[in-house]
Amino acid sequence: MLFQPPPPPEPGFTWAHAATELLGFIGSFALYGAVGFGNFVLPGAGPTPSVVRRATSVGIVGVLVTFLTQLIALARTATEKHLTLGAAFEAGGGALLARLAFLVLALVGLLLARRRGGHTAAARPGWALAALAALGLALRGIVTGRLTAVVNPLHVLAGGLWIGSLFVLAFSALPLTVSRWWPEGKHAAAVAVMVRRFSTLALASSALLVVTGVTTAWRHLHRLDALWTTPYGRTLCVKLVFVLAVAGLGAYNWRLVSPRLGHDDATETLVRSARTELGLALVVLVITAILVSIPAPKG
Hints:
Elements: H1 15-41, H2 49-81, H3 85-115, H4 120-139, H5 148-172, H6 187-221, H7 226-229, H8 231-257, H9 264-291
Helix pairs in contact: 1-2, 1-4, 1-5, 1-6, 1-9, 2-3, 2-5, 3-4, 4-5, 5-6, 5-9, 6-8, 8-9
């Protein structure tokens, strides 16, 4: 077989924990993707209210899903430590309050951008507020002074700006079924502008993804042979295979498909390729949710 399934998890692993992690990744990617799309991909493409509504809908769903995962985490903490939900909330301290506050700010920003989406300039403050809130979510751990409190959230942020923005682009602007949202004959040209902007964002995000990913992997593995001698390492190897597949497909879109944009036939090709890339990315998220639920090797 070309791809081997992840190895059996170690004791301490639960599928419920992995499912919660996956839900959290989906929420974060939706939020960060909408923010990346609204602030970096959409400007200059002549957006319409319908495109903005679709994009902000993805972000709003991301905020709500993230709230839900936080509630699930609180309930799990309360159960494990035999606390009430209120006591578990108090135990979360300032870090939990900051997370919730940034989520509220992101929601306010997205709703503001949605309300004023018909006017590009008027929507910018909303997108900017959502971006600041998203950055606050990713960097909130910096106040602890611990590198680990920043690297993992930045890794998720980078993935969300890449794959999340691609999903929003594919959902809100690429399909020919939404071509009527632009003036006659302007859909393909608008797509070309957005894809060029997305490519720049994806390249920068992938660089940050590599740096934070290598840092996280080394911190957990401690030694090179743990890659093939531990369940954590072997699961990481499976993840890397699919990450390389996503990156390869992204490179194909960037170098071969994007230069032909400007016509609807090229847009159709990009839509099909983007769907495949997103499918592979979903597999990566599932494997990542399993990976973070497996106890790391002992040093």
